[in-house]
Automatic annotation (TrEMBL):
Belongs to the sulfotransferase 6 family. It is a single-pass type II membrane protein. The keyword Membrane applies. This is Heparan-sulfate 6-O-sulfotransferase. It comes from Chlamydotis macqueenii. Keywords: Glycoprotein, Membrane, Signal-anchor, Transferase, Transmembrane, Transmembrane helix. Residues 210-232 are annotated as: Disordered. Its EC number is 2.8.2.-. It comes from the Eukaryota. GO terms for molecular function: heparan sulfate 6-sulfotransferase activity. It catalyses: alpha-D-glucosaminyl-[heparan sulfate](n) + 3'-phosphoadenylyl sulfate = 6-sulfo-alpha-D-glucosaminyl-[heparan sulfate](n) + adenosine 3',5'-bisphosphate + H(+). It is found in: Membrane. Its main location: membrane.
């Protein structure tokens, strides 16, 4: 069996707002063990943002203010190899170095995946998946522009704050979008080349058939003429 890693990335600001709304409704990740290098992080390495059973009802400001919030740069963290930076132990290396290692690791792992898509490009994502794995979905993907994240109205200052909290995800998404569109264009060119090759083969076969028919017609005419001469 062949196993392939695939993922779907999302615009970091929309993804962050969506997670906030999810948490606000009572979602938690208590079942997630965050195991890295064979162990889970200690409470000192990964403090909780809230007390009690969940963080339901938290405001966006409270969500942004928690320095331990795993929503920050989640896509980079989940795509990177955390063992390279000592897992959740922030004292292993300086923050600037840690960020660079995480971002480079996330980019490399994304590039090596057999397939990844972007939430903001549903049709292109479907096209790439189908061409990559030679499979077809029953119905076309639908681009939903109305989401829980899009229903949240934020001012420019709040958006800039979210972008700053997710600056690694912002850079990763720019890289991912560029790579995604490159792969899409490559597949489209490949498809056009294959279609052109098939048309050329069909024209070649058609010309061969026409030549064969002409040859048969010429032979038939010669045979008829010789037969008439013999009768005359």
């Amino acid at each position: 069996r062949n196993f392939y890693y695939i993922t779907i990335l999302r615009d970091p600001v929309s993804r962050y707002l969506s997670e906030w709304r999810h948490v606000q409704r009572g979602a938690t990740w208590k079942a997630s063990l965050h195991i890295c290098d064979g162990r889970s992080p200690t409470t000192e390495e990964l403090p909780s943002c809230y007390t009690g059973d969940d963080w339901s009802g938290c405001s966006l400001q409270e969500f942004m203010d928690c320095p331990y919030n795993l929503a920050n740069n989640r896509q980079v963290r989940m795509l990177s190899d955390l063992s390279l930076v000592g897992c959740y132990n922030l004292s292993v290396m300086p923050e600037e170095q840690r960020n660079k290692v995480l971002l480079d690791s996330a980019k490399e792992n994304l590039k090596r995946m057999a397939f990844f898509g972007l939430t903001e490009f549903q049709r292109k994502t479907q096209y790439l998946f189908e061409k990559t794995f030679n499979m077809n979905f029953i119905s076309p993907f639908t681009q939903y522009n109305s989401t829980r994240a899009s229903s949240v109205e934020i001012d420019k200052q709040t958006q800039q704050r979210i972008e700053a909290l997710n600056f690694l995800d912002m850079e990763l998404y720019d890289y991912a979008k560029d790579l995604f569109l490159q792969r899409y264009q490559y597949m489209r060119q490949k498809e056009h080349q294959e279609a052109r090759r098939k048309r050329q083969e069909q024209r070649k076969i058609l010309r061969a058939k026409q030549a064969h028919l002409r040859e048969q017609g010429e032979n038939s005419s010669s045979t008829d003429y010789i037969g008439n001469v013999e009768r005359w």
